[in-house]
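Please, structure for the following, as tokens.
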Amino acid sequence: MPKSVLHLTPPVFYTLLALSEEPRHGYEISQSTEEASLGKVKMGPGTLYGTLQRMQVAGLLKEVAAPQGAEGPHRERRRYYAITEAGRQALVAESERLEKAVSLLRQRGFGPSPRRSS
């Protein structure tokens, strides 16, 4: 995997996270990103479509046909995107990087202690 995708920006991370469930169109990706980030990452059209284009060039996602059952007045005009294997690998690598960072913070006394199951 290229080093350029080892540290993902929040828009790229949340886009891959949204696509890890199913193919989505741009507005769905934007809504999912805002929801998953608890409102911290909001992508307007310029950021969203610029991010999608760069991710496509990097091989992290691909444009796909509308999924079965896709509805809505703009169904024919919408572009749908799906995560690629490289995108999945980048998402896993980033989640592992974040887990290590959180673990290091906890070791140094920052943040809540890990919860223990009974």
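The chain has a mean pLDDT of 88. The chain is about 50% helix and 10% strand.
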